[in-house]
Structures are given as C-alpha cells and as structure tokens.
Amino acid sequence: MRKIKKGDNVVVISGRDKGKRGDVARILDAQHVVVNGVNQVKKHTKPNPMKNQQGGIVAKEMPIHVSNIAIWNPVTAKADRVGTRILDDGRKVRFFKSNGEQIGA
Asked: For residue range 51-77, what is the model confidence (pLDDT) as tens digits?
C-alpha cells in the first residue's frame, strides 16, 4: 500500500518550495509525484493550431520526489508520517503516526 496517494494533501519538507502545501495531482512512479502549485517551472511552448493551443510561456508543475514531501495532518496542523495497519475485517488502512488517527476515514 502506498503511503502517498492521489488527492492527499501534502506539504513540501525540503527544497526550493519548502513549506508549500498542495494536493497530489498524479503519481508518476514509485518515487515521483506531481503536486498542484508546487515545483512550478516556466515552459516555452510553440503554438499548435491542430490542438488549438496558443504559444508563449506557460507555468507547469513538474514532478517532485516523495522523500521531499510529507502528508499534512489537519488535526495537529503539521507534516506527519504515515503507517499502515490491518483492521479486524482484513482491510488495510493508513494512519497518522503522531496521533494514530486513520487517514481518509
């Protein structure tokens, strides 16, 4: 089970965007995710009339390594670590390590 999933609210804990928060937009592979509003770069694009796309400078989110983000705990209002546990009915769930509360209950 992944510790970080699509839609999770995460905070950047190291790098240029340290302290910024956003939701996970995409998971690219086991080590990289794209977070909304984080790690933005300016990309120069050519116009493409076939796709009805204008040219110019576009701000785009780039992938960030999972070691540089942590899940946001709304109860403690801090970054937190994630653990997994198996419930009595056999389901595997994630929980916050600091207070033991289940994620996405």
From this structure: 998 999 999 999 999 999 999 999 999
Which residue in this structure is represented by tokens 């794209």? 34
CATH number of 9-47+54-96: 2.30.30.30
3: Cα separation from own chain's centroid: 11
Q: Where are the domains of the chain?
A: 9-47+54-96
pLDDT tens digits, one per residue of 71-94: 999 999 999 999 999 999 999 999
Beta bridge partners of 60: 41
Sequence-separated (6 or more) residues with CB below 8 Å from residue 71 = 3, 4, 8, 9, 10, 11, 79, 80, 81, 82, 96, 103
30 in helix, strand or coil?
A: coil
